[in-house]
């Protein structure tokens, strides 16, 4: 008879679960901060925007956003943000290009980046006071131009409390922010690309037109959107500089929630919700464009 060999039973080995890395402890403060100061307040705004003073569900606050005064506030805020973002992107790109690819002395780069790191975080009431002391009616530059050159800024149409005055003030932190974000993108341009283009007979204009700009365009557009969101949500600088001269949505929001005359907190929540939607879309597009740009610059 044919003998049947016994087959040993198959045993499944359970891989031991790897212990959780202690490195997660380092990111706990980040998640806690994001939850307490970003997620929870945003959820509170969303709920409050659809409630009345008695806590009942309503769409009146959202409908109130279509009032002429509120639409005008959104329009002015969008215009100021767009103007400061576009101008900041243009001048910031030129500065970053000059120190990275323009052949300037190497010692200029650390000085510019250090200043950009400081200036990009200098905002609020100190920045407003600095520009009033410099370009106000009795400011240093205004006085010097009037006494030395006989030129009056205010008689020729300039006003620090106007649309362009606020835009100029925003450029103080918009341009440095553009420099900081765009410098790594310019550093990522490989020398081999320029050499290959030169060997193939491309002129400098052709190289920039068909090689550099298609690669940098997502970074340029994405950073411009980031600058737009950065200025759209600013309130301290605008309030300290112009007060109620300009009907900005941030100042209107402050008046609705904390003001003595205008006090409708739930309409303020709706205003804030609209701002969150606009800035959220801008930041989301920035992340998408930055991810696309990094694929070329790796």
Automatic annotation (TrEMBL):
It is found in: Cell membrane. Its main location: membrane. InterPro entries: MetI-like, MetI-like_sf. The chain crosses the membrane at residues 21-47, 59-78, 85-108, 163-186, 206-229, 236-257, 269-289. Residues 74-286 form the ABC transmembrane type-1 domain. GO terms for biological process: transmembrane transport. GO terms for cellular component: plasma membrane. Pfam families: BPD_transp_1 (PF00528). Keywords: Cell membrane, Membrane, Transmembrane, Transmembrane helix, Transport. It comes from the Bacteria. It is a multi-pass membrane protein. Belongs to the binding-protein-dependent transport system permease family. CysTW subfamily. PANTHER family: INNER MEMBRANE ABC TRANSPORTER PERMEASE PROTEIN YDCU-RELATED (PTHR42929:SF1), INNER MEMBRANE ABC TRANSPORTER PERMEASE PROTEIN YDCU-RELATED-RELATED (PTHR42929). This is ABC transporter permease subunit. It comes from Lichenibacterium ramalinae.
